[in-house]
Amino acid sequence: MSDIIVVTNTLGDLGTNCYTVVNTKNREAVIIDPAAGAPFLINMVRNQSYDLKAVLLTHGHFDHMAAVPELKKAFPDVPVYIGEDDVDILGSASANLSAMFSSRPISLTADKTVKDGDILEFTGFSFKIIAVPGHTKGGVCYYLEAEKMLFDGDTLFCRSIGRSDFPTGDGELLLKSIKEKLFTLPDDTTVYPGHEMRTTIGAEKKGNFFFI
Length: 212
Prior knowledge:
Layout: E1 4-11, E2 16-23, E3 28-32, H1 38-47, E4 51-56, H2 68-74, E5 80-83, H3 87-90, H4 98-101, E6 112-114, E7 119-122, E8 125-131, E9 140-144, E10 149-153, E11 156-157, E12 160-161, H5 171-182, E13 190-193, E14 199-200, H6 201-207
Parallel strand pairs: 3-4, 4-5, 5-6, 10-13
Antiparallel strand pairs: 1-2, 2-3, 7-8, 8-9, 9-10, 11-12, 13-14
Helix pairs in contact: 1-2
């Protein structure tokens, strides 16, 4: 039986999926894309006795990171990671869209950056970084190869794809990233997207309108 569980909480006005990946043996955890609801997330970590090791951001948009400031206050030693090419988006309220869509403009600085091919070792699992420019220029996925799990932010959705009309977005590059970086993964890889329901690589290769 696997030692991994994925806790999904849909948070914020835009219904962003925030994932907490937990090793059930040692209670170590990472949070992926803490969109909002910082008090809820903080209480969850404490009430479940999780040992939070990192916060992983798939990209710099506000609806995937708005809870970070309060999380950092509660867990100051927990590092925040983002793709190296999205650092400036994270730090700009206009580029990260918080100035446009939120009443609280946000500007953040990550503790660490990642690039394509990097491997992060947390909670007893390996998170491989897959760079997927298109939704933003520096978007990344976190791929757990052995567990056949892909946390892909706003790149590939169930029967859809992410938007490319925001700053640094590129529609052609988004399609290229999905075809060359994601559709080469095993068909039975579960995709945990930033919004809506989960899917699999195989299902999207066969049924996603953008690729038929």
